[in-house]
Design brief:
The chain is built from ten helices and eleven strands. The protein has one domain: Rossmann fold. By secondary structure, it is α/β, with parallel strands linked by helices.
Length: 283
């Protein structure tokens, strides 16, 4: 064949296709994939993600958690795992192994790959998307009952990538009763609907404050926003988690509140929410 007739082979596209096959192969080994998203930062999305993962692992289920927030990874901090631990790499097989966390939880995060906790990840979209594909396709997750993906807030690169790469995922939207949080949460719900993804439901976090002195519940924000959003979009309200000071303290200390304070109102409400989630997925 003359040189000018040799077809142009795009090696980059071939590599992407191979990684997509690896992603599909990995995801086929995982029964339930749950994506935790929010429209706005600071609503407790990562708190929900790690406590959901730990709740499931605490009853003997095989669970993994993937921190998809490339530029602001907080999962390992809230699980009490040192960033000095590094994933084991198998060069010959071209794969790596997530870190073993508490309760045999498999954990992967960009935080394991930075030199120090203070080092920023200053990447544009294509590099972040490449990292997400590696976390899904090159990591050896093995057979899992649940994979929890903690996404960054908003509807941009990482969120779009995950929603495209895992078509059979279940989406949980986290919000607070605050109006601006609900405005952004509604956009996130609409995005998942446009992409024809299954929305498992909404979790309202910081749903009231339990006074530590009198025990009365105080509405930090006007109530009813999450209920209205669930009705407007015909999406289930999975649960409402009250705000307690212990929740934020234990997150900073790397101790999920459902294990540290199992009898707190927040933990009890969260356990009921997890029960609803499991009934929806395992029925």
């Amino acid at each position: 064949m003359p040189e000018e007739e040799i077809p142009d082979i795009n090696l980059r596209e071939m590599m992407i296709d191979e990684r997509t096959k690896n992603i599909n192969r990995n995801m086929d080994k995982i029964k339930h994939k749950i994506v935790i998203i929010s429209g706005k930062g600071g609503v407790g999305k990562t708190t929900v993600a790690i406590n959901l993962a730990m709740s499931l692992a605490s009853v003997g289920l095989r669970v993994g958690i993937l921190d998809v927030d490339i530029t602001g990874p907080n999962v390992i901090k809230m699980l009490g795992i040192s960033s000095e631990r590094k994933p084991r790499v198998d060069v010959d097989e071209k794969k790596f192994y997530p870190i073993d966390g508490p309760l045999q939880l498999k954990v992967m995060s960009m935080a394991f790959l930075t030199l120090t906790p203070d080092e920023p990840v200053i990447w544009r979209g294509p590099m972040k998307m490449s990292a997400v594909r590696q976390f899904l396709g090159d990591a050896e997750w093995g057979d899992l009952d649940y994979l929890i993906c903690d996404l960054p807030p908003g509807t941009s690169d990482e969120t779009l990538d995950i929603l495209q790469l895992i078509p059979d995922e279940n989406v949980i939207v986290v919000t607070t009763p605050q109006e601006v949080a609900l405005m952004d949460a509604r956009k996130t719900i609409k995005m998942a609907m446009v992409m024809e993804r299954k929305i498992l439901g909404i979790i309202e976090n910081m749903s009231g404050f339990n006074c530590p002195h009198c025990g009365e519940s105080i509405d930090l924000y006007p109530p009813g926003g999450a209920e209205k959003a669930s009705k407007d979009f015909n999406v289930q309200l999975l649960g409402k988690i009250p705000f307690e000071t212990e929740v934020s303290q234990q997150g900073d200390q790397g101790l999920p509140f459902i294990l540290k304070y199992p009898d707190s109102k927040s933990a009890k409400a969260f356990k009921e929410t997890v029960k609803v989630i499991r009934e929806l997925l395992e029925k």
